Amino acid sequence: MIDLLLPTVSQGLLWSLMALGVYLTYRVLDIADLTVEGTFPLGAAVAAEMLIKGFNPVVAIFVAGIAGALAGIVTGLLHTKLKIPALLAGILTMIALYSVNLRVMGKANLSLLRVDTAFTFVKNMGLTNTMSVLVVGIISTLFFSLLIYWFFGTEIGAAIRATGFNPQMIRAQGVNTNFTIVLGLLLSNALVAISGAFIAQSNGFADVGMGVGTIVIGLASVIIGEVLFGTRSFKNSLISVVLGSVTYRIVIAVVLQMGMPPNDLKLFTAVLVALALAMPMFKGKIKARKVAE
Amino acid sequence: MLRIENVSKTFFPGSVNEKKALDNISLHMVPGDFVTVIGSNGAGKSTILNSIAGVFPIDSGKIIIDATDISKMPEHKRAKYIGRVFQDPMLGTAAGMMIEENLAIAARRGKTPGFSWAIKEEERQAFREMLRELDLGLEDRLTARVGLLSGGQRQALTLLMATMQQPKLLLLDEHTAALDPKTADKVLKLTRSIISRHHLTTLMITHNMRDALRFGNRLIMMNAGHIVVDVEGMEKDRLTIPDLLALFEKAAGAALDNDRVLLG
Fold it and tell me: Ranges for the ABC transporter domain (chain B) (predicted)?
């Protein structure tokens, strides 16, 4: 049991960076950003390519984050400057990134089997495979969660949050909402790319198709986290998203153990997210019925 | 102070819905002026406020605040000079953020946000004092989300936010229209006390004739994109509601047509 649990938790932590990125757009900015479907494999591609070229894993992950940030800026400018609806702007960048990712990697799949990664780096300090993934997962999640918590406690972070709640209000307070939206998309996609960089290293490969369903997995983590662990404050929400990501991985591991074919995983996730998104409506109906009685 | 010179604005030009909202309007306000604005449906009352605030660009003319031409400035840059309260109580505050977070944003109105903390500890005490003066029991609820407040509380908070960094011009767009009469009266009295304490230059749209007469030192009436009546001082003080209706009819050539206007 513990043999299954630890790797699952580790995976959940590495994926939680992506979920935090989705949280920043979907909840904080109130934008459903599909760019993440392209930035997740972008981060994986950039990191894989750099690791193969012999760069230090930390540098590779950092550059992957920069690449994701740039993609986020593109979506942000398409949306704010060219007035393209956010959903469509994200789709455009996502599609463009498919070609970019192929160019970065030179082919559809890069293996990292005999390459030094962030995990081999930790493993060399005398840890087992499983433990090294867990340690990297804990450290990266803590580092980025604290960074996000700090940033959104600053004036500029507060301005981004206010933009999501009420753009009219924050403009009336003198903040350029075009800027805050671009900045939010930048941060979100940097996190997603960094998550992609970690996942590629933990899976041992980067693949051009690995971004399919990223947004749905992110939404599943955000919503599961919010329902189970609460949204009392910004800090509480961040913790909920991380725990939601871990819970999602545990749910997936359990249904796979129970014999669900892995090919049905995306269908399962989509249904799960659809149900979770419909929750407020179900709750409303139940409440209405109770009032009627 | 505020000079609006020959400003025109047409919505949906060239389409069947074309609407000339402001037709070559000019208005000068001196420092300390408190102008109330009333008018018929679609007279251009909100358009003039939104033009000043920069919600949309004007077609022609100039808007000048204290020798600064703001006609082409984007909305967020004008915020340095202008405090605003909207008709919809939801619009002035960020519902999902705490009272203190909203106040802290307002305390930095017009400044570029940086990397220092969004709220400083010493600010909390000042916020508490300001909220106590509102007398709405908000002083002990600094960390409550604004979405939990009533419409009246939110408008009072928005008013505080619009004025805590003293604006050169305060724009009030029927800010009590969505409130019940008792709350509306309380918010209006609060408005008056804040305006007179800080000697704020104010433009207030209202749909209530009595309020238009009761508040401010100057009153303008609008019709079809024009200012048709402009009275101030003693002349305004002597006016009654029937006088006002008669003035409007004489100037506009038609009876005041506003399905929301309150005469009493």
Answer: 2-249
Q: Which residues of B touch A174 (CB under 8 A)?
A: 76-77, 79-80, 108-111
Could you give the dihedral angle defined by the CA atoms of residues B213, B83, B86 and B73, in that order, rounded to the nearest 10 degrees? 120
Does residue A272 fall inside a structural domain? yes
Does any domain span residue A292?
Answer: no
Q: Which of A149, A155, A160 is the best residue to mutate to test the B interface, defined by the most B CB atoms within 10 Å of its own CB?
A: A155
Residues in A touching B113 (Cβ below 8 Å): 154-156, 158-159, 175
A-chain CB neighbours of B74 within 8 Å are 176
CA of B256, closest CA in chain A: separation in Å? 31
Q: Residues of chain A whose C-beta is under 8 A from some C-beta in B?
A: 153-159, 161-162, 164-166, 168-177
B77/A166 Cβ within 8 A: no
Q: Which residues pair with B85 in a beta bridge?
A: B172
Sign of CA dihedral A88, A90, A93, A95: negative
Would you call A69 helix, strand, or coil by DSSP?
Answer: helix
**Has residue B36 been placed in a domain?**
yes
Q: Which CATH number covers residue A68?
A: 1.10.3470
Write the ipTM.
0.91
Contact A87, A28 (CB under 8 A): no
Q: Model-level pTM?
A: 0.92
A291: in domain: no
Q: How far is the C-alpha of A158 from the C-alpha of A99, rounded, in Å?
A: 36
Q: How many domains does chain B contain in total?
A: 1
The tens-digit pLDDT sequence of chain B (264 residues) is 899 999 999 999 999 999 999 999 999 999 999 999 998 878 899 999 999 999 999 999 999 999 999 999 999 999 999 999 999 999 999 999 999 999 999 999 989 999 999 999 999 999 999 999 988 889 999 999 999 999 999 999 999 999 999 999 999 999 999 999 999 999 999 999 999 999 999 999 998 899 999 999 999 999 999 999 999 999 999 999 999 889 888 887 777 776 677 765
Q: Which domain holds residue A149?
A: 2-285
Domain assignment present for A218 = yes
Q: Domain count of chain A?
A: 1
